[in-house]
Structure formats: C-alpha cells, structure tokens
C-alpha cells in the first residue's frame, strides 16, 4: 500500500522532467516569431531584401541577402547574425511586453524547479514520505508555474504584428504550459487519493 501512495508522485516527476525539457527548448530558442523578407526597393531604400528574421525571448537572428537595385552596384551581401537582446539594447529596443514575457516565463521556470525539488524531497526524505502537504505544495507550485507560463505567452501573442508570425518555440511553450496544468491536476488527485 505504501508503494501505491507514491505512484502519483513518481508519475508526476517523470512527466515534469519531460515537460521541463519541452519548456526549456521553447524558452531558449530564438523562434518565437519568424518573418520572411521579400522587400522591393523604395525611394528611401534602394535595396532588395530576401530571407528571414526570427526572434525569441532572448535573441533575434537575421538571415537574408541584400543587393542594390542599380545594375552596376548589384553586389550581393549575405547577413547571417544573431544578437542577444541584453547585449545590444542600442540596436534592438526591448518592448515592455517582451520584458513582461521574459519575467513571467522565468518565474514559471523557477516554479517548475521548485516543484521538482518538492516532489524529490517527498520521495527521498523519509520523514516527508506520504505527507499530503508535500503534494499540496508541489501542486500549488506546478499550477502557479503553468499560470505564469500561459500568462507570458498571452502577453507575447497579444502584441500587434506578432500574431501572424508566431513560430514553433512559442507553440512549444504554450503546449508545455498546458501540460503543466495537467501535471498539477495529477498531483492534486494523488493528494486526494492518498489521504
């Protein structure tokens, strides 16, 4: 019977590690948005641009070709660079929405680590095994983290001009936030079943 009490915690730990891997990939990848460039020359800018620009929470990357509209100066230039937002504030202005998203996603990450540590304490420390308070604290941490992650993605996705270019890292983060809600519910059910 003692082994069946800990099964919910063990399942939750396995799912948390899987979810954390998915979240960290989305959290760090510079593919929250991706925009294709196909720009014709104008009176102000006499260059063609072909390629794409993609950006995440922490950096932006440019991968495009540029060439002049005049035939005699039509040498092509290839740009393939990534810039961290923190080191290039002169080049990229960081919006309040991006700062808020960085904050909420980071709080979510810290909360997930706290959830894992709490569950590991419930598994490894003899005096905490079978204690409902461990499951309740872990569930609260997990659900608060999921809420923070979802809130961060809502803030980021609600910015004008971003909705049409959301990319795979944004989707991974949303999926992981929903996944953590499910894990939090599993932890709560485990606490109720193991009275």
From TrEMBL:
Compartmental location: Membrane
InterPro entries with a match to the protein in the record: PMP-22/EMP/MP20-like, PMP22/EMP/MP20/Claudin
Membrane topology: Multi-pass membrane protein
Membrane-spanning ranges: 7-33, 103-124, 136-156, 168-193
Keywords, alphabetical: Membrane, Transmembrane, Transmembrane helix
Main location: membrane
Any one GO CC term of the record: plasma membrane
Designated name of the protein: Uncharacterized protein
Organism, as annotated: Elysia crispata
């Amino acid at each position: 019977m003692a082994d069946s009490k800990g099964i919910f915690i063990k399942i939750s730990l396995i799912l948390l590690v899987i979810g954390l891997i998915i979240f960290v990939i989305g959290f760090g990848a510079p593919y929250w948005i991706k925009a294709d460039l196909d720009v014709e020359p104008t009176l102000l800018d006499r260059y063609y641009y072909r390629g794409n620009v993609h950006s995440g929470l922490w950096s932006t990357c440019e991968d495009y070709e540029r060439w002049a509209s005049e035939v005699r100066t039509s040498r092509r230039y290839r740009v393939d660079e990534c810039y961290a937002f923190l080191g290039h504030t002169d080049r990229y202005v960081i919006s309040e929405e991006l700062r808020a998203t960085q904050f909420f996603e980071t709080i979510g990450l810290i909360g997930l680590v706290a959830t894992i540590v709490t569950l590991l304490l419930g598994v490894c420390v003899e005096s905490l095994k079978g204690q409902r308070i461990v499951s309740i604290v872990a569930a609260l941490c997990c659900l608060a983290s999921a809420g923070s992650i979802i809130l961060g993605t809502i803030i980021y996705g609600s910015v004008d001009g971003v909705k049409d270019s959301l990319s795979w890292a944004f989707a991974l983060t949303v999926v992981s936030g929903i996944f953590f809600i499910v894990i939090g519910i599993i932890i709560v059910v485990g606490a109720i079943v193991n009275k």
